[in-house]
Amino acid sequence: MTATTAAERARDVVTVQRSVNEHGTMTVEVHDSNECRQVVAFAADLRAVFADLPEGTTLPVGMERLHARGNCWRVTSVGPTGRGDPGRDATESVRRTTEPTPRATR
Question: Residue 35 CB: number of other CB atoms within 10 A?
Answer without folding.
Answer: 12
